[in-house]
Amino acid sequence: MLNRRKILQAAVTTAAGGVLAGSPSSLLAQTGAKTAPVEGAKLVLLGTKGGPRVGGTRSNPANALVVDGNVYVIDTAMGVTAQIVKSGLDLADIRAIFISHMHSDHQLEFGNLVYNMWAAGALRRPIDAYGPVGIEAMAADFWRLNRMDIATRIADEGRVDPATLLHARDFAAKQGLVMSGDGVTVTAFTTPHPPLDNLAYRFETPYGSVVYSGDTAYNPALADFSRGADVLVHEVLYVPGVDELVKRANGTPTFRNHLIESHTTAEQVGRIAARAGVKKLVLSHFVPGDMEWITDDMWRSEVARHYKGEIVVGRDLMEIPLG
Ligand SMILES: [Zn+2]
Ligand SMILES: [Zn+2]
């Protein structure tokens, strides 16, 4: 959301990709031209449904943090490229990708997103990707998987080898600095998501801080990592919905226990947000994310038993301004 000052300060990116610095009236008079704020930050929820099943009213997990026009993509479930395009963000503005863990509802479209940037002519400079151990191998495997198409396009269309423009890096530490640049500093914190480990990320920007939980078992230590953040985006699970999910899928008690023990219930999310003292809590990665009988108020009231701050029940393509 732009305030008037920001609109006046904004530059206009033309359809051709050039940047015009225009007078306010000419900026606002532009039709069909995309306006991109060059200052400010916002979080865009690209996909809010937990789990790998495609369909329904929510897309699978993905987010974009936009800081001064640079786009940082956080998790890349199936559908992430389409959601970025739908949100109005420009693929060419993606600077880095952060993967929380190796479940497919967080990384299935990782390579494809970078490929799609390349195919669209939007991979014009190197981008970085960070994730748990395995992300480097996944990048290499992706280029191998698609080598016939890529070699053909390099030969036929004179394109640059996209593998040289993606720098993927395993984050092997338990906690620490991931990257710093363009006014953004990112740290990661390992949190259990049995049987996997998951990286929660904290983004410090000139406009405030955002913590993204990824998928995590209830972990009070995550509250310490999130302390004082302006926005905490936390995964969330609704127990009565999980019971119905298990029944529908003819699931076993083992499946139910896995879901409960490797995720955080709405009531527990409230405890985390309260302990962390965050200014705003954004619920996302809903499990289940496709049962319409679970209303926003049902999610909210569980959380509000412990957390008295602002609660946002996330929706796809929702924008949360920072600062
Ligand atoms: Zn997940
Ligand atoms: Zn997971």
Automatic annotation (TrEMBL):
One annotated GO molecular function: 3'-tRNA processing endoribonuclease activity
Keyword field contains Transport: no
Signal sequence extent: 1-21
Gene3D superfamilies in the record: Ribonuclease Z/Hydroxyacylglutathione hydrolase-like
Cited CDD domains: arylsulfatase_AtsA-like_MBL-fold
Domain of life: Bacteria
Family matches, as SMART domains: Lactamase_B
Record has Signal as a keyword: yes
InterPro entries: AtsA-like_MBL-fold (IPR044094), Metallo-B-lactamas (IPR001279), RibonucZ/Hydroxyglut_hydro (IPR036866), TAT_signal (IPR006311)
Keywords: Hydrolase, Signal
Domain named Metallo-beta-lactamase: residues: 61-263
Protein name (Swiss-Prot/TrEMBL): Beta-lactamase
Organism: Novosphingobium lindaniclasticum LE124
